[in-house]
Amino acid sequence: MSNLRFQALNTSINRSQIKVDDSTLRSSLFAKHVFNTQAMRQHLTKDAFLAIEEAKEKNSKISRSTADHIATAMKEWALKHQVTHYTHWFQPLTGATAEKHDAFFETTSEGYAIEKFDGSQLVQQEPDASSFPSGGIRNTFEARGYTAWDPTSPAFIYGTTLCIPTVFVAYTGEALDYKTPLLRALQAVDASAVAVCKYFDKNVRKVNASLGWEQEYFLIDKALVASRPDLMLTGRTLLGHAAAKGQQLDDHYFGTIPNRAMAYMRDLENECMLLGIPVKTRHNEVAPNQFELAPIFEEANLAVDHNSLLMDVMQKVADRHHLKVLLHEKPFAGVNGSGKHNNWSLATDTGVNLLSPGKTPMSNLQFLTFFINTIKAVKEYEELLRASVASASNDHRLGANEAPPAIVSIFIGNQLSKVLNELETVSKGKLSPEEKTDLKLNVVGKIPEILLDNTDRNRTSPFAFTGNKFEFRAVGSSANCASPMTVLNTIVAKQLQVFKLEVDTLIDEKGMKKDDAIFNVLREYIKQSKTILFEGNGYSDEWKKEAKKRKLSNNIATPEALKVKVSQPVLELFEELGVMNSVESKARYEIDVEEYVMKVQIESRVLGDIARNHIIPIAVSYQNRLIKNVTGLKTIYGASYKTYAEEALTLIESISHHIASINAMVRDMTNARKKANVISDISKKAQMYCHDVKPYLEDIRYHCDKLELLVDDELWPLTKYRELLFFS
Ligand code: ADP
Ligand code: MG
Predict the structure, then answer these.
(1) Which residues contact 383 (CB under 8 A, 6 or more apart)?
(2) What are the sequence ranges of the domains in the chain?
(3) Which ligand 1 atom is nearest residue 457's CA?
(4) Which pLDDT score, from 0 to 100, does residue 456 have?
(5) pLDDT tens-digit series, residues 641-691
(6) pLDDT given at position 2
(7) Least enclosed by CB within 10 Å: which of 35, 236, 257, 660?
């Protein structure tokens, strides 16, 4: 057996069980390392506390002297927890989180040392950010980037560092991160939703978007991962024949959690508790060694921060357990990949979930208003929503009969479909008193009891209503949730604005009563949104045909999917709602496309290298062994050797065929890359990588995987699927 594989298997087998001390009650650990409202009440003066609360609610500015006070209090609190450094924690467009630590430690002019942290250090920093992707923004404006404190997400202690969540923007104001547009989108949806809420309740002052993500992941022994250059460099296996047993027995899903995974999960959950990430659910997923973790939902900005932080914590904790977390959307062929469902809703400061049916016809009309407007928003911008989850890695998952297709549609269930059908027949103009009574008693009034048995969930739908929230299931496991959340909240914000305008027009110009106007507008929306509603099997081929008839987009590959981001209506949408100006939108498009190119390029190089330098040499040496065998048989049996050498001869021929094919394809793939690399138009380049380079990955893999079945297991250089995918 090859050295690397042999050593890896040996190390992984000898792992001792790691004991986790989690005897402390979870609730007593919760948010101990977070400078949250409770900690702030304890450590801040009343004025400073109120200043932060006001900043959170109204985006008001915090004065320099208040910031100084807050910084000092934060420092004192952190020092009690043995913290030595602080950092502005942000989410640049690389997808990972970024941090640059500075010590509190400083020397004075008198020559002694102190621990110092003041308001200016809290509020703003200038990291040397020239190496983060900016899509040309920084070059164009020759501006530096700076980070600025986001008081809506509390500071936290990670290891021995005080982390201050921040936005990352260019000096000219353009966003260079995920958080800035998200915050702007959340403000937009807040404003639009509050305005619409006023039809139903004058007391509503604020509407928060909520997000509950469900994170899927694979856990693989670290030594085994290290033995696979493809996993190390691309996060997925670029080759490897399926194990005889995969997920066909359905014996992993919701099964007993393996001991080793359980120890990891308990340790991870402890860390999450300290960081205030309210994780609640854990279970095995469909594929072997695949698991899921889900928290209690939170305000969307905080939830996004928590998910970004979690992805980092997951790796750090895994390291202690000699494990590696794979967040790639499709690390293994032939078994399910990983997603990250985004459960989303809107809630008022008066405690009402706007997507939860209420107890009275009036609150149900409010529910229907938000429900139907969300549907309409998705209908109008389905292609943009698809683009928000587009990435090279997610392309492997969407449409692969394990995750929703690349076509966005909405599932609402039987009962709500009926409600919409009835609402569609509401009279035009003013409603008669009888019709109103009927609506109240038989349609709107019936919703609560209906939803209790709204259990026919459709797992194949990318965007499903699940009783009190929508669940966007096309998000990839490695994605930053900010991207889909920015789009979803923006399009709903826009839609609610349009709705308000239309209702007000009917009231002001047609003299309609408020209820009549709302029913009238909703009726039209139901009619206009029909094509996005789909209750059937989203995995089926019939749906693809049907969706085409309905003129829904079906952008299978990322380069196609991303284009809509720079279409005129989308540029205008983001601009109008103050979420991104066209420079920011275009920059992001460029970054996304470039990332796609680089991902495929890296995979292509890695596979070329593995195929040429690992697989072929081994195949050749096994082939030589067979040739020697045939020559030996010839010596013994003379002319009749063929009777005995039949098997070896066939093998030699097959191996020769696969080797020749691999060689030719690696050469052609390299040439295709060279051709694409000289193209300066990034969109064109991405198309070339998608259509001219990427197909080779599958074709080369096919031959390598065939060789895996032919070559002596002892010689095979790469750790096999059956070894990677099952804990010992
Ligand atoms: P599943 O999709 O696996 O059946 P659940 O129905 O249990 O899962 O819920 C999944 C996620 O939805 C959880 O993380 C939960 O916190 C979240 N969730 C529940 N209510 C809301 C809400 N109003 N807004 C956002 N997320 C929510
Ligand atoms: Mg779910």
Answers:
(1) 408, 553, 555, 561, 564
(2) 31-176, 186-580, 595-724
(3) 4
(4) 58
(5) 988 999 999 999 999 999 999 999 999 999 999 999 999 999 999 999 999
(6) 61
(7) 660
pLDDT, tens only, 430-456: 999 999 888 888 888 878 766 655 555
- Cα–Cα distance, 89 to 101 (Å, whole number): 9
Say which residue, 258 or 496, is predicted with more confidence: 496
Task: Give the pair of three-digit tokens for residue 464.
Answer: 């499903």
Q: Sign of dihedral through CA atoms 704, 707, 713, 714? A: negative
Ligand 2 centroid distance, CA of 21 (Å):
30
Q: Select the CATH number that applies to the domain covering 31-176 from these four: 3.10.20.70, 3.10.20.30, 3.40.50.10490, 3.30.70.100.
A: 3.10.20.70
Q: Tell me how far the alpha carbon of residue 612 lies from the centroid of ligand 2, in angstroms.
A: 42
> In the numeric block, which tokens belong to residue 48?
């400073």
- Cα–Cα distance for residue pair 446/71, rounded to 1 Å: 53
What b/e sequence results for 618-629 when a residue is b if at least 16 CB atoms lie within 10 Å of its CB, and e otherwise? bbeebbeebeeb
CATH class of the region 595-724: mainly alpha
The CA 341 to ligand 2 mean position distance, Å, reads 5
pLDDT for the residue numbered 359: 82
Superfamily of domain 186-580: Glutamine synthetase/guanido kinase, catalytic domain (3.30.590.10)
Asked whether 342 lines ligand 1 (CB < 6 A), one says no
pLDDT tens digit sequence for 618-641: 999 999 999 999 999 999 999 899
> Which ligand is closest to the CA of 356, given by its number?
1
In this structure, what token pair is assigned to residue 112?
A: 């002694």
Determine whether the shortest distance from the Cβ of 352 to ligand 1 is under 6 A: no
- How many angstroms does the Cα of residue 297 sit away from the middle of ligand 1? 7
Mutate to test the pocket of ligand 1, among 343, 458, 471 (most ligand atoms within 8 A of CB): 343
Q: Indicate the average pLDDT of the chain.
A: 93
Distance from the CA of 213 to the center of ligand 1, in angstroms? 8
In short, whether 294's Cβ falls inside 6 Å of ligand 1 is yes
Question: pLDDT per residue over 218-252, tens digit each?
Answer: 999 999 999 999 999 999 999 999 988 878 777 77
| Whole-number pLDDT of residue 91 | 93
Q: Whose structure tokens read 């696969």?
A: 658
Among protein residues, the one with the nearest Cα to ligand 1's atom 4 is 466
State pLDDT tens for residues 420-429: 999 999 999 9
Return the ligand number nearest the Cα of 341. Answer: 2
Q: Is the pTM of this model over 0.90?
A: yes
